[in-house]
Amino acid sequence: MVFSSKKLSVAASLFTLALADPWPKRGLAANDDVPISQFSGSWNGHGSQVNWQYNWDSTTNQKQSWAEFIPMLWGTQSYHTTQWFDNAWYWINNGGSGHLLAFNEPEQGGQANLSPGDAANAWRQYMEPFYGHAQLGAPAVSNDGYNWISQFLQACSGCHIDFIPIHWYNDWTLENDFENWVNSICSLGGGRQVWITEFQAGGTIDQQSTFLRSAIPFLDNNPCVYRYSYFGTADNSKVLLQNGGPALSPLGVQYTFSPYGSGNGPN
Ligand code: BGC
């Protein structure tokens, strides 16, 4: 077989890409009043792995220069929907955002609280218009939401859903359950990326640290997982911060500066 020099150079650059450092997957789920300015830079010579942020809302007043802000349409209440198009277009066109998140925990009465059918209609109305302009996320179910998200994907057939965000909360001893949950959504998604936009292990800080030592390598090494954000920069849990911040707690340092593929901290 004869290769043209152009084909050879394309093949060579693909080869270089494959060998380059993988793109970091870690992010922050951070309410706007929780300071996140110190999740950048380096520690013991290891650079921050955090490169994206969201705040459960469609705009923010604490966009970090080193992070992609991801607007979210939390639910279908008019408070959220009336500002959605202006905010999402603003962040896509002027703010460097390339992804959008949809309804938060729609299977839960106290959260976005939508049936799969109603969510599919709302997704077509509010998310589909951005097809071709940003990568689009399905609604984010928690780990009680397998049936809900299966039904949603059927109801929204033909929707241009690029990725499936999920949440997980369970005991720190159940890291295996976390892996099974992520893998089950990877299978369900039929090749779509999976993001874990909230997850937290129940337990002491030391027990959460042990959990992350296993969970981070699993997530970094799983090609189906595109992004994840540990729950710990939110109004109701600031475990990644020291006394509310802005300094990072030891757990925050472990999460931010463990090298790609390791959860052991920047040692
Ligand atoms: C809620 C958000 C809230 C966040 C942090 C989420 O589960 O849906 O409204 O800001 O938790 O507490």
Ligand names: beta-D-glucopyranose
Q: What is the CATH class designation?
A: Alpha Beta
Tally of structural domains: 1
Helix/strand order: HEEEEEHEHEHEHEHEH
Given the C-alpha coordinates, what overall shape results?
globular
Q: What is the third-level CATH name, the topology?
A: TIM Barrel
Please summarize the sheet with the most strands: 3 strands, parallel
**Overall mean confidence score, pLDDT:** 94
Portion of residues within helices? 25-40%
Can you name the CATH architecture? Alpha-Beta Barrel
The share of residues in extended strands comes to 15-25%
Spatial arrangement of strands, main beta sheet:
1-4-5
CA distance, first residue to last residue: 49 Å
Runs with pLDDT <50, length 5+? Answer: 1-14
SS-based structural class? alpha/beta
Taking Cα atoms only, what radius of gyration do you get, to the nearest Å?
A: 19 Å
- How many E strands? 10
| CATH H-level superfamily | Glycosidases
In DSSP terms (H or I, runs of 4 or more residues), the helix count works out at 7
InterPro entries: ASL1, Asl1_glyco_hydro_catalytic, GH
Keywords: Signal
GO cellular component, one term: fungal-type cell wall
Signal peptide: 1-20
